[in-house]
């Protein structure tokens, strides 16, 4: 494959740094391509762009402190669900009762995501309010142990994401995620420069009262949540997954297995998974679940459908745990991943 236009872009950045991309001919070409297709983007928007170093959001889960990216990502959604589960006390054994509790916690957190999470400059509540004891207690009180709930309308997020994690000999842990959203993003390539444009703007809403209503200079909600967990004040576990809406749900499933059950991280990644679709609140579950789990969820009123034993939509998770002076890595059998050490 030859991509001379993209090579031209890379050369320009090598010679001129970030300004060569966000200003001048490249920025003008990007903005022109978007406007040609009816979009709203000006060269001044690109010139005003700046990356940010942000502090992660933190919340306790059992004896861990879990770190997630703040809004506009859904990191707070994973933390809220974990806080609800933590507040529920000791988990029941693996089975339909546990699956119901976790699913209901996830549903409530996803509904709050839709109602509140957006560009932090536009949020109507402080993100930390979603993790407060009173908020979490209210959500836990809404869970009926015997019946599936309906937390209201919510919008589903798609995705086309890649996740990886790494660790070095000095104890540095890296959790990295990248996406251009829907497979190849918007499907638009900037003429002359070979740049494929993402379409994260799909998460905006045209409803004036919605938290993610489109606005100038605003960033939309997005799904990216590389994660890390601390134990005893030190980094202990680095983990994450692709999967759009499923990312926060997988974080909850992995941590409950690793922490509550003491599962080996590879066993946790290999365990069957479920996912909930925001809005419809339908549950999909991999066919490897014991039939009693599927039946128990259905008996509680969940609309459950079984999917393949290793379903793509259940995420491609990866993890590394600091085990004494060594690392242990795990890769998801649902993807073409690998654990590599040297």
Tell me about this structure.
This protein is an alpha+beta fold and 342 residues long. It has a domain at 57-159 and 222-331: Gamma-glutamyltranspeptidase, large (L) subunit, C-terminal domain (Serum Albumin, Chain A, Domain 1), CATH 1.10.246.130. It contains ten helices and 13 strands. It has helices at 4-16, 19-22, 25-36, 43-47, 75-87, 96-116, 133-141, 246-260, 265-270, 291-299, and strands at 57-61, 64-68, 161-167, 173-179, 189-190, 195-196, 227-231, 234-241, 274-276, 283-286, 304-307, 317-323, 326-331. A six-stranded antiparallel β-sheet has the order 1-2-7-8-12-13. Strands 9-10-11 form a three-stranded mixed β-sheet. Strands 3-4 form a two-stranded antiparallel sheet. A hairpin with a 4-residue loop joins strand 5 and strand 6. Helix 5 (75-87) crosses helix 7 (133-141). The two termini are 30 Å apart. 37% of the residues are buried. The model has no long low-confidence stretch (mean pLDDT 95).
SSE layout:
Layout: H1 4-16, H2 19-22, H3 25-36, H4 43-47, E1 57-61, E2 64-68, H5 75-87, H6 96-116, H7 133-141, E3 161-167, E4 173-179, E5 189-190, E6 195-196, E7 227-231, E8 234-241, H8 246-260, H9 265-270, E9 274-276, E10 283-286, H10 291-299, E11 304-307, E12 317-323, E13 326-331
Parallel strand pairs: 10-11
Antiparallel strand pairs: 1-2, 2-7, 3-4, 5-6, 7-8, 8-12, 9-10, 12-13
CATH hierarchy: architecture of the domain at 57-159 and 222-331: Orthogonal Bundle
Q: Could you give a short account of the major beta sheet?
A: 6 strands, antiparallel
Mean pLDDT score: 95
Strand content: 15-25%
Q: What is the level 1 CATH name of the domain at 57-159 and 222-331?
A: Mainly Alpha
Helix content: 25-40%
Morphology call: globular
Question: Quick one: CATH superfamily of the domain at 57-159 and 222-331?
Answer: Gamma-glutamyltranspeptidase, large (L) subunit, C-terminal domain
Poorly predicted regions: none
Question: Strand order of the main beta sheet, please?
Answer: 1-2-7-8-12-13
CATH topology of the domain at 57-159 and 222-331: Serum Albumin, Chain A, Domain 1
What is the number of E strands? 13
Structural class: alpha+beta
Radius of gyration: 21 Å
Distance between the termini: 30 Å
What is the H/E order? Answer: HHHHEEHHHEEEEEEHHEEHEEE
Number of helices: 10
